[in-house]
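Worked example

This section walks through a single chain of length 171. The input is the sequence exactly as stored; nothing has been trimmed or padded.
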Amino acid sequence: MLKVQEIREIIKLIDESTISEFTYETNETKVVLKKDQATVASPVSSQDQVVTDQSVEVQEKQKVAVQAQAVDEKEVVITDQPTTNSSLTVDYDYEIVSPMVGTLYSAPSPEEDPYVANGAQVTKDTVVCIVEAMKLFNEIEADVSGEIVEVLVEDGELVEYGQPLFRVKTK
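Given that input, the structure is written out below as tokens.
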């Protein structure tokens, strides 16, 4: 069962993201969060609302289709011409993107230096940042070897699924 603080964190993450609906279900409880113009949270007991396997299957297929579309769009962005930042053109081959919605931390702790900065050399398994989602800290790896040419997010910033975090000039 979710605690009130966990529900509040989920509401905050959904409110700050582009997600419009979130459902969490256990044997005892079902929590449905929907967002139109305002975020609405409504705990619903499992006796109040029944979801059929068929509707869940349709929702999962739609979810997979949306994720596949996002991946296709991201591949187009990666192969496009480099974008401009102010008056400078940044030459890059690859973007490291967020695999989830959460809060980005650029260092292992507030007292330590960031994992990477502009000009840093990375390998495929180099940790570039941490994304925290629901009190789970997930290390994000570069997945390519090269040089960080642009840091696109700041420490403590909320990031979306698929949002570019770093630009890399591969070797």
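What to look for: The longest helix spans residues 53-79.
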